[in-house]
Specification:
Elements lengths: L38 H10 L4 E2 L1 H9 L7 H4 L6 E2 L8 E7 L12 H16 L1 H4 L4 E4 L1 H4 L7 H12 L3 H4 L6 E7 L5 H10 L2 E6 L4 E6 L3 E3 L16 E3 L8 H10 L3 E3 L5 H6 L16 H9 L11 H18 L2 E7 L4 H7 L8 E7 L3 H12 L6 E5 L5 H8 L9 E5 L4 H10 L9 E3 L7 H10 L8 E3 L7 H10 L5 E3 L6 H9 L4 E3 L1 H4 L6 H42 L12 H17 L10
Parallel strand pairs: 3-4, 3-5, 5-10, 8-9, 11-12, 12-13, 13-14, 14-15, 15-16, 16-17, 17-18
Antiparallel strand pairs: 1-2, 6-7
Length: about 600
């Protein structure tokens, strides 16, 4: 038999993080033939490292039986438990980032198992096209990688897998990765007490007995300096609990950063929301900013992140820096929402480092007037942007003018400024900028309080942009005058969405004569020909207004909360910088190019707040 590996604290699939013990160094990743976002390289890596993925059906059966995860070695003997990729196989996976709640087993109470199965059912209902795939499997380190005690061959596979562990998280934006699910929440105390009262036990490898043995959960003991008692050693018969929070663990935090922004915490989704808001709840998942290498190292220096094995710190830091630069250099879509006030400045500094981004999306945030212009500059002078989506973010007219009037955005294909408080003045600013966006095909200005004056301005500018195919002005205040103007100028459009606007019978008749796809409940209820349709339309609009107010209420409350925070901190000057002298939009546009070039040369990014 090969020489035994190190005792449990240093040899699990992913080390626990309690900041106590030292262990042999994990090999630093060498320059590899494996590349991120390449399915062929990922598949070959799984084959070379002998990585096994877990079948969803097995997890469901294990959950129904009230069991816990088996080790990789035992799972291989269970029929239908694991899937090993072949050289010609086509598959996808979901990465699981979780805490090891005990040194000997990551999920001794089965809480993580039940959470994953529950989330799988939830997301299948919320997005069946994405998650009803029979070739989708899970990566769970305890079942996917060989565990203690390993023989020589298993140890070799384990070390190779550890060198490229980031592949299971940093590929979160690839087509073959459905998502990365985090389990930040630890097992609730009520569940622990219930299972302890039941006298349950779990199967773990016992070094003292040299085999997998059943150990009662009542043997779970807290550790001090890596030991549960003065006589604790490698052959201790107790289970050693680890209650360090997810975001305070070095490995967990690294996995979180590698996976951003395509990662979700499935442990905090309320059951009620899962049952009643399957399609709505997905919009309220916070997508925070990724940590820069400097921010990650600062957290390590302040000891806010803990590693069980301090020798792991160097390789993980290098992996974090490598993954960050690879992702920002290749990321084509960037999205963030529910952005806190303190993160706006970090976003402005991060944008120039996104060298290949083509789609930028920001939803539900409050930006002060001093923060809007720098963000608009960063977007307006970004050379690769093709799509800009900003929703539920109140913007000032100078910021809108700077954003839409920049000549560097001549490649812009889609612009969405929904619920940005534009009004007629903002609509006129957007209309005046049409001439410098010849490639624009979609324009969305929903829920902006635009009236007939703004609609007329848009209509006068439509002939200047012949590529525009879709115009969305839903949820505004456009009356018959604006509807008639849009109908007369909509010759090049393929689709006009003017729903939930009081366009009246005159506007309905003008739109009905056009050979374009018009979305309007006024046409649907035949307001121009029927009194009954007129009253039905009025009732429908009132209902939809009430419904929309309820839907956007959380976003509105979040913005007001951030605004109150800004006002309170501005009074004492402790967190918000003093307002800088205002500059006209023309001056801003002239100075924007130079400022953007200066920012591109800078390689510093401030620390983003912990999610």
């Amino acid at each position: 038999m090969a020489e035994p590996a190190q005792p449990p604290p240093s040899t699990f699939g992913k080390p626990i993080d309690d900041g106590t013990t030292e262990s042999p160094e994990v090999e630093e990743p060498a320059s590899s033939k494996y590349q991120l976002n390449s399915f062929e390289d990922f598949r070959q890596y799984c084959i070379d490292a002998n990585v096994a993925l877990v079948r969803p059906k097995f997890l469901e059966e294990l959950c129904r039986a009230g069991g816990v995860w088996p080790r990789r070695q035992e799972a291989e003997k269970m029929e239908g438990a694991l899937y090993k990729p072949g050289p010609d196989d086509q598959f996808s996976f979901i990465g699981i980032s979780h805490c090891w709640e005990a040194r000997e087993h990551p999920d001794p109470f089965g809480f993580q198992l039940r959470t994953i199965v529950d989330a799988l059912h939830y997301w299948k209902a919320a997005n069946p096209e994405k998650y009803e795939d029979g070739d989708t499997y899970f990566f769970i380190d305890y079942m996917s990688l060989p565990q203690f005690l390993r023989n020589a061959e298993e140890e070799k596979d384990f070390q190779l897998a550890m060198q490229h562990m980031h592949f299971f998280y940093a590929n979160s934006g690839a087509d073959f990765c459905k998502s990365v699910w985090r389990l930040e929440r630890l097992t609730p105390r009520s569940l622990k007490r219930w299972q302890l009262w039941q006298g349950r036990s779990i199967a773990v490898y016992s070094l003292a007995e040299g085999r997998v043995a059943e150990v009662p959960l009542k043997r779970l003991k807290s550790m001090v300096n890596g030991k549960c008692c003065s006589t604790c050693d490698d052959k201790c018969c107790n289970l050693h609990i680890n209650d360090v929070m997810y975001l305070c663990r070095g490995w967990c935090r690294a996995e979180f950063e590698w996976a951003k922004p395509n990662t979700v915490d499935i442990s905090r989704q309320a059951t009620f929301l899962r049952c009643c808001w399957a399609t709505y709840d997905a919009e309220f998942i916070r997508l925070s900013l990724p940590w820069t290498p400097e921010a990650f190292q600062q957290q390590l220096a302040s000891e806010q992140l803990k590693f069980t094995h301090r020798s792991d710190m160097g390789p993980v830091v290098k992996l974090q820096e490598l993954v960050f630069h690879q992702k920002v250099a290749t990321m084509e879509e960037f999205q963030c929402n529910w952005l806190r006030l303190s993160e706006v400045e970090d976003l402005v500094k991060l944008l120039p480092r996104l060298q290949a981004v083509e789609t930028f999306a920001l939803m539900a945030a409050y930006l002060s007037s001093q923060q809007q212009v720098p963000l608009a500059k960063a977007l307006a002078f970004h050379p690769t942007l093709r799509k800009v989506e900003i929703a539920h973010v109140q913007l000032t007219i100078p910021a809108v003018e700077l954003l839409v009037s920049a000549p560097r955005l001549h490649r812009l294909e889609m612009l969405r400024l929904d619920a940005c408080g534009l009004g007629d003045a903002g609509a006129k600013v957007v209309a005046d900028a049409f001439v410098i966006h010849p490639a624009l095909t979609e324009l969305h200005l929903a829920f902006n309080g635009i009236g007939s004056a703004g609609a007329v301005a848009l209509a006068h500018a439509l002939p200047a942009i012949r590529c525009l195919e879709e115009l969305n002005v839903r949820w505004n205040r456009i009356h018959s005058l604006g509807a008639v103007a849009l109908a007369n100028a909509a010759n090049t459009l393929k689709r006009l969405d003017i729903r939930d606007n009081p366009i009246g019978a005159k506007g309905a008749r003008a739109l009905r004569c056009r050979s374009i796809d018009v979305e309007s409940e006024v046409l649907h209820f035949n307001v121009d020909t029927s009194w009954l349709g007129f009253f039905r339309c009025i009732l429908w609009q009132l209902f939809m207004r009430l419904f929309l107010s309820m839907v956007v209420l959380p976003m509105t409350c979040f913005r007001w909360r951030q605004r109150m925070f800004h006002v309170m901190t501005a009074k004492d000057g402790s967190r918000v910088r003093p307002a800088e002298p205002s500059e006209s939009s023309e001056e801003v546009i002239q100075s924007g190019e130079a400022n953007a070039a200066h920012r591109c040369q800078s390689d510093n990014a401030s620390v983003a707040t912990i999610d």
